[in-house]
Specification:
Blueprint lengths: L2 E4 L5 H6 L4 E5 L6 H12 L4 E5 L4 H12 L7 E4 L2 E4 L1 H12 L7 H25 L4 H10 L1 H15 L16 H12 L4 H4 L6 H12 L1 H7 L7
Parallel strand pairs: 2-3
Antiparallel strand pairs: 1-3, 2-4, 4-5
Helix pairs in contact: 2-4, 2-8, 2-11, 5-6, 5-7, 5-8, 6-7
């Protein structure tokens, strides 16, 4: 049976969203696309129900339950006030619009936020192809020296050169956005943020972003809590 945990009591943010969202996802530590949704809600101190399916029970649920929520059978799925929300980055953007936060305020800022999110999404796709490959011992080392290095170098260059990003630690300088969470999460899942960001030592601007995300008070509290599972 899946497990469900309520994070904390409802807040004004729940009123804005229209209820308490329920995230349906793998029981995969604090990793993956579903974790990016959790982090935004944690940062905004919005109560949510965290429903996790084990890898053993997921295949059956995928065919008997998930298919009724999302015909393409992908997760995370979020239930909110009788709505079914799918596609993690679309969910993040939807929450950002409702909250009137976590996004840019001009078309130019919004473009830059979306562009960096898309880059991190492309990186994640290649990471999963290598990490979940049956020949992982061959494919993942090649990924780390090839595609991962390319994306790290590319993001470092973009964050260092863009005028918005030069104004502070985040993608939009001082303004924290959903895309900062997306970039942070792929770096986390590649085990680059652990041990004080040891894996990012040569990428100073990316490390600045990661450190700033982890120092946000509500995210810092989450990372120190038993809700964070590594």
């Amino acid at each position: 049976m899946p497990t469900t945990q309520r994070t904390f009591g409802p807040s004004a943010g729940n009123d804005t969203l229209g209820g308490v969202p329920e995230i349906l996802y793998f029981d995969f530590q604090s990793r993956g696309r579903g974790q990016a949704v959790r982090l935004l809600l944690e940062d905004a101190q919005i109560a949510y129900d965290d429903t996790r399916y084990s890898f053993e029970e997921y295949p059956e649920w995928k065919e008997t339950g998930l298919v009724n929520l999302n015909p393409v059978k992908t997760i995370p799925v979020v239930k909110l006030n009788e709505k079914i929300l799918t596609q993690s980055y679309a969910i993040l953007r939807y929450f950002a619009k409702l909250l009137k936060s976590y996004d840019g305020t001009t078309p130019e800022e919004q473009y830059w936020v979306d562009a960096l999110c898309d880059i991190a999404s492309d990186w994640r796709t290649l990471f999963l192809q290598a990490f979940l490959n049956p020949k992982q011992q061959e494919t993942y080392p090649k990924h780390k020296e090839g595609d991962r290095k390319r994306f790290l170098e590319g993001l470092e260059a973009l964050l260092t050169s863009n005028d918005f990003s030069k104004a502070g630690p985040f993608i939009l300088g001082q303004a924290f956005t959903y895309a900062d969470i997306v970039v942070y999460q792929i770096a986390h899942d590649e085990n680059l943020t652990q041990e004080g960001g040891k894996g990012l030592q040569q990428y100073h601007r990316l490390k600045q972003l990661v450190n700033a995300v982890e120092e946000r008070p509500n995210i810092k509290a989450f990372l120190a809590s038993d809700r964070y599972r590594g």
